[in-house]
Amino acid sequence: MRIIVTEDYQSMSRKAAMMVAGQISLxxxxxLGLATGSTPIGLYQELIKMYQxxxxxxxxxxxxxxxxxxxxxxxxxQSYHYFMYDNLFNHIxxxxxxxxxxxxxxxxxxxxxxxxxxxxxxxGGIDLQILGIGVNGHIGFNExxxxxxxxxxxxxxxxxxxxxxxxxxDSPDLVPRKALSVGMGVILRARRIILLAxxxxxxxxxxxxxxxxxxxNTPSSFLQLHPDVNLIIDKAAASLLDGELIRSV
Length: 249
Ligand code: F6R
Fold this sequence. Notes:
Rossmann fold, alpha/beta, binds fructose -6-phosphate, 8 helices, globular
């Protein structure tokens, strides 16, 4: 694991954008795995700036998002579809046909999940996966449990996640209790992973990710088994890591 500690959220976002830009410049038809939530918003803003400056071309890029809430339509402002268009796709030259996001309103969820995985395989797999992390160590919506999904599935959200995400809704009762999420297999098959984290409330999850036991109670700890993971985290999120560790991993 490569651990890059930045001064603050902005420099975390800039560093991550440089890595994503490097990926797209070297391979214009890159397949990106994308995350939603507060953490990657700064990264997406930086990518938009690079596109507007003429430094980045998304016309051949293919994207797959990690997850989508159950039973929210694409035009619902709380859906991850809406989030992605609002925060990124509406501002760059991505081709709509190159964007894939799980359909939270699918009539047959098993089929939706199977076809999503097949579409990822058919494009040759994910070159670069962007991840945020839950306070409970979830990645995508792979929640801590006695076992984890390898495959993409409809999953129950934990109370921790429902509480954390209630900040985006008018009331906690409105937060969907379920979501479609890619499985751990999709994440761990990505050739390269960037995990972003900012703020003290992520420090414990980051410590467990880096130096905890690999356990289904902390899904992000499985990233220790991946050969190319880059943690780009701000000082606050790194505050529980010891310096020795940062240098030695
Ligand atoms: C979002 C996702 C989640 C978030 C995580 C952190 O697509 O898969 O795992 O990355 O919940 O969310 P924020 O960034 O809002 O703290």
